[in-house]
Amino acid sequence: MKIPDESHPISIERASGVVRVLFEGHEIADSDNVLVLREANYPPVYYFPRDDVRMEFLRRTDKVTHCPYKGDASYFTIYRDRQIIESAVWSYEDPYAAVAAISGRLAFYPEHVEFQVGDLSPAETEARDVDEVVLHTDSGSGNSQAAKWPPNVDTPDPDRVERDVDQLYTGVGAI
Q1: How high is the pLDDT of residue 90?
Q2: pTM for the whole thing?
Q3: CA 96/CA 3 separation, integer angstroms
């Protein structure tokens, strides 16, 4: 067992608002009690309470994996609309104390489902505001890099006219 530290940070916080999981356009999870686990340099993971997941579309598998920071994960296969996606969902039934908050909750592999946060569509949920990403990016010190890194370009000038790229040699003589 490894304990999260500065070299491998793990944080867990509650997601703001409602988070939904869509599989082939059908809602498979919907909750306002979702936890977001952020681990080292990995993408954030949404963990849903089982009561807010349509468990009738999931079947437990025999697959078990081990994470040195979280413990043993068990897996579920999605069965919906004649689609079978093996081991697309996982859960830490008895995680290590440092991540005990995710105990028994379910997480979905994003390549198999779409996430919808609040009233945003799945496509809008995926489009992230660059300033928001920079604000939360740090060098490991816990401090935002946004204040240290000014933008390297100005806002485009709407009155600027670009030259015609098809006319590269206009007025420069004969070739």
Answers
A1: 98
A2: 0.70
A3: 9
